[in-house]
Design goal:
eight-stranded mixed sheet; alpha+beta
Length: 163
C-alpha cells in the first residue's frame, strides 16, 4: 500500500514523481479554505508530506484553524512560481490534530529553516503550546509539468516575466 492508494492521482507524473515533488520541494503549500461568509481564502503555509497526508502547523486561534473546523474540506496547490511551471493541486479533507501541533511545528522548522537557532525559530517555538496540526488528506490530485513545452522558450532566455 502506497501513500497514494487512497488518492485519485492523474496528470503528468507517476506516484513516485508526485511523491518526490511533495517531499523535495521546499516551498509553501497554497491552501484554500472556506470562510464563514462562503468565500474561499487562499493562504500559504509550510508543510510536510508523510503517510499520505500533508501536515501544517497553525495557532489554534488562527483564522485558518477556525475555517477548517467549520468546513473540513479544502483545496491545495504545491507549485513554484518560476518556469518551467510544474506542480500538484487537488482537493482534500482537513482535520485539526492538537496533540501533533508541536511535533509538526518542529519538523517544519527543520525543513524550512534548517535549525531551531534562528530568532524566527525561537519565536515560533515560544508559542508551540498553542499550535495545532492540520492534517490534509488529499482525495483527488492532479499534476502538471510544462517543462517540455517550455523548453525552447527557456533556452532563448524568456522567462515570461517583465523587469
Amino acid at each position: 500500500m502506497t501513500a497514494w492508494s487512497a488518492i485519485a492521482l492523474s496528470g503528468a507524473w507517476t506516484e513516485e514523481e508526485a511523491d518526490r515533488h511533495m517531499r523535495e520541494r521546499v516551498i509553501p503549500i497554497r491552501l484554500a479554505s472556506m470562510t464563514p461568509t462562503g468565500y474561499p481564502l487562499v493562504m500559504s503555509l509550510w508543510y510536510i508530506w508523510e503517510e499520505g497526508a500533508l501536515w501544517c502547523a497553525v495557532q489554534k486561534t488562527s483564522r485558518v484553524a477556525g475555517h477548517c473546523r467549520l468546513h473540513p474540506r479544502c483545496g491545495f496547490e504545491i507549485a513554484g512560481d518560476d518556469p518551467p511551471y510544474q506542480g500538484i493541486r487537488g482537493v482534500a479533507d482537513v482535520s485539526l490534530v492538537p496533540e501533533a501541533g508541536e511535533r509538526v511545528l518542529r519538523r517544519l522548522i527543520a525543513r524550512y529553516l534548517g535549525s531551531e537557532t534562528s530568532d524566527l525559530a525561537r519565536w515560533l517555538l515560544s508559542r508551540a503550546d498553542t499550535e495545532v496540526a492540520l492534517r490534509i488528506r488529499p482525495l483527488r490530485a492532479f499534476t502538471w509539468d510544462y517543462g517540455a513545452r517550455m523548453q525552447d522558450a527557456l533556452a532563448s532566455g524568456s522567462s515570461g516575466t517583465k523587469a
